Amino acid sequence: MTRINANVARGTTGALSCSHCRQELEGTPDDYLTHLPHYEGPVTEAGPQVFPDSAVYIDAEVVFRQYYCPGCYTAFRTEVVPRV
């Protein structure tokens, strides 16, 4: 296995998997995040270091988004982004 990052590895067949539970993942190293399940919630879930009222700084509404492994639920990526 070759590690792509701390959470994703590529096996000898080229398939991607979770480095923690070996759950097979869809996609390529460039787009696997788009295939992962994700959670979206209020920006306050990002923690107290994130200002909760985005309207003070930008014109877009923002959300807390977290992509996670479908097997073990390890968080692969967490972000605060404009609502799509």
Structure description:
The chain has 84 residues and is an all-beta fold. It has one domain (2-82). Helices cover 0% and strands 35% of the residues. The strands form 2 sheets. The chain has a 4-stranded antiparallel β-sheet, with no helix packed on it. A 3-stranded antiparallel β-sheet has the order 5-6-7, with no helix packed on it. The chain is elongated, with a radius of gyration of 15 Å. The N and C termini lie far apart (35 Å).
State mean pLDDT (0 to 100 scale). Answer: 94
Helix content: under 10%
Rg over CA atoms: 15 Å
Measured between the Cα atoms of the first and last residue, the distance is 35 Å
Structural class: mainly beta
Biggest sheet overview: 4 strands, antiparallel
Count up the domains.
1
Q: How do the SSEs run, as a string of H and E?
A: EEEEEEE
Q: Using DSSP, what is the number of strands? A: 7
Give the strand line-up of the largest sheet.
Answer: 1-2-3-4
In short:
The chain has 84 residues and is mostly beta strands. It is built from no helices and 7 strands.
Please name the defining characteristics of this protein.
84 residues, mainly beta, 4-stranded antiparallel sheet, 3-stranded antiparallel sheet, 7 strands, elongated
What is the fold's blueprint, element by element?
Blueprint (H helix, E strand, L loop, with lengths): L1 E2 L4 E3 L5 E3 L5 E2 L12 E4 L20 E7 L6 E8 L2
Antiparallel strand pairs: 1-2, 2-3, 3-4, 5-6, 6-7
